[in-house]
Amino acid sequence: MVTGKLEKMLILAFESAAKAEIHLLETGVDAADQAKAMTRLVHVLLGCERTEKDVAIWQARADSLKARGHLHDAIGANLGTRLVACAVLLLHLDGKDLKVASAPFVRLEALLAELVARHGGVPWPVPYLEYMQFEKYRLENAPPRVDEALASTQPDTSTMAYVSSTLPPDP
């Protein structure tokens, strides 16, 4: 039987890691890039669905940004992904277990919302744990998905489109 204690411990670990990233952001990144990191954080919250798969995709994007030397974007993406990952942990809990695990989640969300505001960003107005209200807000304000944004700016290069355009017509 899964209890909220394990999720609480994981969220506390995420909170500790977030604080370390915030320290790195505020001591190792110039002010203009700190604001860009907050834009990235909010972008992730609004773009990432509450699924393990989507969290993994966004975390891979954050890792890619870090590998390319975009530290501020990577930190913003990591912080946003961390909050969504914590919310995914809470999805299967209810009652007392949800209450135990949600307390550190609420603290982490408040920390990140305050960080966004402190660096000139606009934090999300709906608590992340208010699932239906936040989803409505997220869907109304979500940035275009990366694949949708690419599709609107680049020609179709999918395998089937490429193959069909390069094969000679049937005789």
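Next protein, fold it too.
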Amino acid sequence: MQPQVISKLFEKKEEQINKEVKRLFNKAKEIAKKEMNLFKFELLFASSIPNKKLDSITSSIRDDRDKAWTKSLKIANGDFEKAMEIYEKVAEEIA
């Protein structure tokens, strides 16, 4: 192969890698934003509900999330990334 062809192949691969890194970064950023909003909600929620009731609700939410994650992982055949995409839809079904 000529050096120009090799150089073009490297440039193309670098571009593909950069696109994938950007996609993953944006996905991580979106997940972090959702988690932060959930955290804010939980703080407000916790301050407005009596402890006994809060414990019951928290336990129920945890169980629902566990069920949604287990179902998502099963649908995705153990593929973590696919399960992350499926989780949001499954969580809505369970809720």
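About the second fold: The CA atoms of residues 75 and 91 lie 13 Å apart.
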